[in-house]
Amino acid sequence: MSMRGLQYHGAQDIRYNTEIPVPEVTNPNDVIVKVAYCGICGTDLHEFEVPIFFANATTKEGDRISGKQLPLVLGHEFSGIVQAVGANVTKVTPGDHVVVETTGHCSDRREYFKYNTEEPECQSCELGYENTCKDLNFLGLGVDNGALAEYTKYHQDHVLKVDKKIPLDVDALIEPLSVVYHAVELAGFKEGEDALVLGSGPIGLATLLILQAKGASKVVVSEPASVRREQAVKLGAVGFNPFEFGENATEELRKLGSRGQGFAKAFDCSGIPATYTTSIHALRAHGVACNVAIWPHKSVAHYVMDVTLEEKTSVGSLGYQTKDFKGVIELLESGKLDVEKVKSLITGKVGLKEGVTKGFKELIEHKDKHIKILVSPDL
Q: Is 1 exposed, middle or buried (0-12, 13-18, 19+ CB in 10 A)?
């Protein structure tokens, strides 16, 4: 049997294919998922320009976790319905609504893909930090075929059930919400604290929603683009335009924090030198600045005493773990995370065949018009 999907062949080369083999149960831990919706991530857009995560899959050795090689189906932000399961699967059953935590790390290489089994477990995985595995990759980015197709599959340990009261299109945003849930947890955010979010693209807006769900007293979103800033305000943030204040922008931001002396937490979701610096300077004493953005390979001027003098902390956050997905699901199912606000992040839905033209290229050419475009095999 064959299915439809979008296959990555290389930079600028994503092809719609109607003859992709449908995944079958070949491992007792397999869960086959019928895809409902799959979001196009900023990482996918970067891969469209040049292989980064897909780089190993372009070599004759293949991906470091699975050994898989191109072409492979894209897509790692998705929801779906369980279609079939392997003999050992106990966590989900056919018909369940699910999301998939798509990381691939040392345990997946050794126990699931059984690839390079002699390779020792890396220190990060040994310590329980699989999200910083030395060979970290993701389903839909080189580990295996992703969800910009009709079906996909993965190990049951990565598959999480979601209450059917949550719409499947909203479920597809649990993955990006888990990215920022991880960051908020890593920063040590506590209920009642205030926070600054720098940048209101998809990840910035998701950070706003998670902070609200976890009881932030105030969230200020700094964003120069009026369309994006207005989106943050509609979701309940205090909007701030740094361009209005020029060189005094950071000082004006600090005034919006507790007692006019800065914020407890700051999250850089933009990834440029100015926002990184501001995330530290806009903190109060003992505040925490967390970088969530993925940076290009370049340095930033950093004065160590900017951290030391008020015992601030600067930390970087990468991806997520399964526990972060569980945290987001709990917030959604409890009602603390507003389903309608999450749904408002969806600004377009397209079918698989139009996924490149009306999905990838639309986001690249009109990024300020959209937050999240979902691709569905059923459209």
A: exposed
Report cis status (omega within 30 of 0) of the bond before 71.
yes
Q: Using only C-alpha atoms, what is the Rg of the chain? A: 21
- On whether the pTM is more than 0.85, the answer is yes
- Give the number of other CB atoms < 10 A from CB of residue 143: 31
Indicate the domain borders of the chain.
Answer: 2-173+345-376, 177-316
How many whole angstroms separate alpha carbon 108 and alpha carbon 143? 10
Q: How far is the C-alpha of 31 from the C-alpha of 114, rounded, in Å?
A: 17
Bridge-based pairing of strands 218-222 and 238-240 is: parallel
- pLDDT value at residue 30: 98
| CA–CA distance, 256 with 339 (Å, rounded to integer) | 28
Tell me how far apart the alpha carbons of residues 291 and 279 are, in angstroms, rounded to a whole number: 8
Fold type of domain 177-316: Rossmann fold (3.40.50)
Residue pair 145/72 in contact (Cβ under 8 Å)? The answer is yes
Interval 119-152: pLDDT, tens? 999 999 999 999 999 999 999 999 999 999 999 9
Contacts of 298 (CB under 8 A, 6+ apart): none
Tokens of residue 62, six digits:
């293949």
Q: How far apart are CA 358 and CA 362, in angstroms?
A: 5
Burial code (b: 16+ CB inside 10 Å, e: under 16) for 89-109 equals: bebbeeebbbbbbbbbbbebb
CATH of 2-173+345-376, picked from 2.60.40.420, 3.90.180.10, 3.40.50.2300, 3.40.30.10, is: 3.90.180.10
Residues 6+ positions from 80 with CB-CB distance below 8 Å: 33, 34, 35, 36, 97, 98, 99, 100, 147, 152, 168
Q: Cβ distance 54 to 143 under 8 Å?
A: no
Which letter does DSSP use for residue 149 in this model?
Answer: B
Measured CA to CA, the distance from residue 9 to residue 43 in angstroms comes to 16
